[in-house]
């Protein structure tokens, strides 16, 4: 019977492509930029779709402008509890004049849907919403349980989204395994991700007139020297768990990372990266700056803990008596990973191979996703999605064919995981 129902699932995936694309376009036309992060209209769209399919859902909304949706159904008996996770909010549009296409158009041009957030992650969230609907249609033959979580606040840290749900609604949303469809590139499946450590450095000196540099240090010059020292943190070597090291050492995995994310990505995935995100200092060209602030984004690989980097930062800053630092978003998750040999990885690689023609490789992600909140709670979590190219840029767009491939891969992997189909 599993083969018969799997064939039915495949027929829905193929026969309803126009409906799937129309939903993605409608989703794209709704402004969910964060900030400000108002996702209520988009949540209405999802609720209406689920209602049309006869699927129950409820809100969990700690912030009124940022609703989170939870939709669950039980199958025919005991089995795995699978959680599907996507988010509603997207990056800000930025300078509209830089866009050749309306950032809220949802237009399809040369096989691509244009608009802010199509890549990150309206493509993936739309795909999982349809996967949830198709699995619900098959609930009479599926063991276990399926839960869809569609959250807000991902782009600003997840405090009121996935973090809230995994803490406040754990019994409903943790499950046995999580599928997420953030952009990964069709060549890769992400089984882990780096930790995000944000630190603010404040330089404070007396300041004065620029013609009298002997009267005060320059805050901006101190900041420039500090930056050079902070960049040396990139030289720290990780102590990787053997399963991660053996996976990431594979030539095929390294080639897939570089193919999906650009040349050099395989090395970056296993090293600390240091980005001086913003520099603010000085008042006027002929004044000695009395203050300067640096906001720095450190991305930590699996095998390097936050405490180790913070200790290195403290050591560096100890040589700068005019500098203090503060951890932003204190207490964030460590770099995290799930077993690359987990059964879901097997199902997802095979399903993606069916959809694309070649099995993707397991990798550690460079960027962060909401799956970190589930992994921190001990729930295996895996990410497979469209190419990240153009994410957050002007004229962001996603390939229609990749959209359908991602949906197909998740649908088949979910079905096979729930039914044990081989």
Characteristics of this structure?
single chain; alpha+beta; Aminopeptidase; 6-stranded mixed sheet; 14 helices; 37% helix; globular
Walkthrough of the structure:
With 422 residues, the protein is α+β, with helices and mostly antiparallel strands. The protein folds into two domains: 2-193 and 335-419, Zn peptidases (Aminopeptidase, 3-Layer(aba) Sandwich), CATH 3.40.630.10; 195-236 and 271-328, Alpha-Beta Plaits. It contains 14 helices and 18 strands. The protein has helices spanning 2-15, 17-28, 40-52, 118-137, 162-168, 170-173, 219-231, 242-248, 251-261, 265-268, 306-317, 343-356, 371-376, 400-419; strands at 58-59, 69-74, 81-87, 108-109, 112-114, 145-151, 177-180, 188-193, 195-204, 208-209, 273-281, 287-288, 291-300, 323-328, 336-337, 361-365, 381-383, 397-399. Helix 1 (2-15) runs antiparallel to helix 14 (400-419) and helix 4 packs across helix 14. The model has no long low-confidence stretch (mean pLDDT 96).
């Amino acid at each position: 019977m599993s083969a018969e129902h799997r064939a039915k699932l495949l027929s829905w995936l193929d026969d309803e492509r126009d409906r799937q694309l129309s939903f993605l376009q409608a989703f794209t036309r709704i402004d969910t930029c964060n900030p400000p992060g108002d996702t209520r209209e988009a949540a209405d769209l999802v609720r209406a779709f689920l209602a049309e399919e006869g699927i129950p859902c409820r809100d969990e909304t700690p912030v009124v402008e940022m609703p989170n949706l939870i939709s669950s159904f039980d199958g025919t008996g005991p089995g795995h509890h699978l959680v599907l996770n996507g988010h509603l909010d997207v990056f800000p549009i930025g300078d509209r004049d830089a866009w050749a296409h309306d950032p809220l158009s949802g237009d399809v041009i040369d096989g691509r849907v244009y608009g802010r957030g199509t890549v990150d992650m309206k493509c993936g969230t739309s795909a999982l919403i349809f996967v949830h609907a198709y699995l619900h249609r098959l609930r009479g033959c599926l063991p276990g349980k399926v839960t869809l979580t569609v959250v807000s606040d991902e782009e600003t840290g997840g405090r009121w989204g996935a973090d809230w749900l995994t803490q406040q609604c754990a019994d409903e949303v943790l499950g046995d395994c999580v599928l997420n469809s953030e952009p990964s590139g069709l060549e890769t499946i992400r089984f882990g991700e780096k930790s995000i450590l944000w630190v603010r450095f404040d330089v404070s000196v007396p300041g004065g007139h620029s013609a009298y540099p002997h009267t005060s240090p320059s805050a901006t010059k101190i900041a420039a020297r500090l930056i050079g020292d902070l960049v040396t943190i990139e030289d720290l070597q990780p102590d990787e768990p053997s399963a991660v090291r053996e996976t990431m050492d594979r030539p095929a995995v390294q080639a897939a990372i570089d193919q999906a994310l650009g040349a050099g990505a395989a090395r970056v995935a296993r090293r600390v990266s240091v980005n001086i995100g913003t520099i603010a200092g000085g008042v006027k060209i002929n004044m000695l700056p009395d203050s300067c602030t640096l906001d720095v984004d450190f991305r930590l690989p699996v095998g390097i803990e936050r405490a180790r980097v913070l200790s290195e930062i403290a050591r560096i800053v100890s040589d700068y008596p005019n500098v203090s630092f503060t951890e932003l978003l204190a207490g964030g998750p460590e770099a995290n990973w799930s077993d690359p040999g987990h059964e879901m990885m097997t199902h997802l690689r095979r399903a993606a191979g069916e959809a694309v023609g070649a099995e993707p490789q397991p990798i550690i992600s460079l960027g962060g996703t909401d799956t970190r909140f589930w992994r921190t709670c001990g729930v295996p979590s895996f990410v497979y999605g469209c190419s990240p190219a153009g994410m957050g840029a002007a004229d962001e767009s996603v390939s229609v064919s990749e959209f359908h491939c991602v949906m197909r891969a998740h649908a088949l992997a979910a079905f096979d995981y729930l039914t044990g189909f081989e």
